[in-house]
Structure formats: C-alpha cells, structure tokens
Amino acid sequence: MTAEATSSTAFGRDLILTDADFRRICQLIYDRAGIVLADNKREMVYSRLAKRLRLHGMSHFGEYLDRLARQPGAREWEAFTNALTTNLTAFFREAHHFPLLAAHVAGRREPVRVWCAAASTGEEPYSIAMTLSEALGPQLASQSRIVATDIDSDALGKARTGVYPLKQVLEMGEERARQFFLRGSGERIGLARVRQELMSMVEFRQLNLHDAQWPISGPFDVIFCRNIMIYFDKPSQAKILKHFVSYLKPDGLLITGHSENFTYISDDFVLRGQTVYTLRGAAQPKG
C-alpha cells in the first residue's frame, strides 16, 4: 500500500480515499455542478460518498470514480451530485427578506411570479408561498406561481411531499402553522403537511445553475438565490448573474444570502441593502 493510500485510511477509515481521488472528485463536481470544494471538505466528501461505495460493494474511491467515468450516462452520477450538495435550510430563514418580498408585491392586481433557485427540501419556497398568501390575499395568491428549482433530486422529492416534523413547523408560530399546515394523526402523528392550496402555488423542477441553458421561462418579479452562490467560484457567479438578467422583470428583485456580495462581480445589478439587488437603472424598490 502506498504512503498516500495509507494516510487515507487513518482514524479508523475502512475505505481508501487518496489525494488523487479527492482532487478528481473536486474536479468532477466542479465540472458537473460548478461547486468548488476546498481542501477542508475532504472529511465531508469521504462521509457522504462512502455510502455510495458501500452500496456498490467497493472499498476504493478510485474504483468508484472509474465506474462513473466508464458510464457517463449512468444514474449514479445523480447520486454522486446529490451526495455532494449541501441542503441547509429552514422555514423563514433569514427572516428579514420576507417582509421585503411582501412590500414589493403589496397592492398588485396581477399574479406574481417568483423563482426560488435553491429550493432544497422545500422550506424556502413554501415560506415564499405563505408570504404571498398573506400579502396578496388567498385569491390572487392562488393565481401566483413559484418556480422552485434545485440540482438535488432527493431534496426535491422531499419538497414535493410537503411533509415536515411538526416541531419544525411550529417554530414559525402557531398561527401560521394552523393556517398553512395540516397536523398528522395516527401513524403520521408528529408530522405536518403543507395545505393543498399552498402546494398548488409551487412548481418543483430540477435545474443545474451551472448549465448553459435553463429549462424555465421568465420573467420573474423576484428571484431568490440564497446561500448557493457561495459554493461557486467568481467566474461561475458572474456567468449566473449575467444569465439572471433576462429572467428578472425590469423592476424585479434579486434576493441573495447574508454572506454573498456581488457588488464587484456584476455590473448588471445594484445592491439596495440587506443583500437585495435590483437591475442597474431600475427604480428604488418599495419597502
């Protein structure tokens, strides 16, 4: 066994992940999804992909990667990508954005279109739907649409069910929980499901922001793209921001995550505060 392989089995590991394997994984996920993995993500890579190796009865990451290379159209590529995608989300996460959304659509007489570009397991798009329902009223909100996309097919599968732990749902407050969710009983006790009228506002679709073409149509009143661009390098961020321009209405909002700043990356957008951007030359948004 080489010194490189030996080091990879330290700390009781039963699978072999060499430095070359890790570099190869970093390149593959960058090419496929634009995700940049730093050296400190090696433990995460090992723990997440180890499940795939064990499922296939493999002991060496190199063997797994060779199999992927031999089968460019295999469904295992989707499992590989899902495993390396981070899904950290919550209902009304970064809560200050939702009153801004409500203020932006207040007084509208036509349906609103919102794109949630990192939908994960659904908490964010359903939070958007609740906000639209409260701001527009049930009738106009029911005609509005939220396109919720993510690269992770497993996360989208959970999002489509609209089922969450009741404890998680109650964290947003008893009133919202009662208005927008149904409590489970019997075998479903301890769970809550999004009400059908809210679910009907959201369309979940798989989409890779790193792709040259996106299988959705704009324009949108608001684009939520929060806490996903931090995983991309600056050239990828600039390309995605340039692509967003044609998907946003002239007076639309681009809402990003608290740790994301694109002021020096794109000339197309102007920061209006609280990580909310508008197209350059657009009027100051309401709220």
TrEMBL record:
This protein's record includes keyword Amino-acid biosynthesis: no
Domain CheR-type methyltransferase: 10-282
UniProt keyword annotations, A-Z: Methyltransferase, S-adenosyl-L-methionine, Transferase
Binding site for S-adenosyl-L-methionine: 87, 89, 93, 124, 150, 208-209, 226-227
CDD domains in the record: AdoMet_MTases
GO molecular function, one term: protein-glutamate O-methyltransferase activity
Catalytic activity field: L-glutamyl-[protein] + S-adenosyl-L-methionine = [protein]-L-glutamate 5-O-methyl ester + S-adenosyl-L-homocysteine
Gene3D superfamilies to which the protein is assigned, alphabetical: Chemotaxis receptor methyltransferase CheR, N-terminal domain, Vaccinia Virus protein VP39
InterPro entries: Bact_Chemotaxis_MeTrfase, Chemotaxis_MeTrfase_CheR, CheR_C, CheR_MeTrfase, CheR_N, CheR_N_sf, SAM-dependent_MTases_sf
EC number: 2.1.1.80
GO biological process: one example: methylation
UniProt enzyme class: transferase
General function of this protein: Methylation of the membrane-bound methyl-accepting chemotaxis proteins (MCP) to form gamma-glutamyl methyl ester residues in MCP.
Name used for this protein in its record: Chemotaxis protein methyltransferase
Species this chain originates from: Geopseudomonas sagittaria
